[in-house]
Design goal:
The protein is an alpha+beta fold and 115 residues long. The protein has helices spanning 30-57, 71-78, 82-91, 107-113; strands at residues 7-10, 17-20, 68-69, 97-99, 102-106.
Length: 115
């Protein structure tokens, strides 16, 4: 079942005018559709990276006053990655305590790490 619809449209990627056979066609060719798809994915990755950096920049000032910190809070306080904290714990350089599912690190243990 084919239709005889012919609509003049402008390609959303390259801007060339073309005759579309359906009402939902956005691009003049398969190449333009593929390039637009790649550009869309690239922009989403860039926006995701920017959003992730903004989340990492947020520092909670209450962390400096707490005696017991989670892994995430320890990362923010020291400025190390989560995996580095876990490596320090597994090597015995940093002492951590498990309470249920949570891993808690005391402020004293963090200070002893740098002595």
């Amino acid at each position: 079942m084919s239709s005889n619809i012919r609509i003049e449209k402008t390609c959303q990627y390259c801007g060339v005018k073309f005759i579309a056979k359906t009402t939902v066609t956005k691009f003049c060719s398969d190449n333009c559709a593929k390039r637009a798809y790649k550009a869309r994915n690239r922009d989403e990755k860039i926006q995701g990276a920017i959003y992730k950096e903004e989340l990492e920049k947020v520092f909670n000032p209450e962390i400096k006053e707490r005696d017991f910190l989670s892994i995430r809070e320890t990362c923010q306080l020291i400025g190390m990655s989560r995996w580095t904290i876990y490596r320090l714990i597994s090597s015995g350089k940093l002492i951590a305590h498990k309470i249920g599912n949570r891993t808690i690190i005391t402020r004293i243990d963090i200070n002893n790490l740098f002595k």
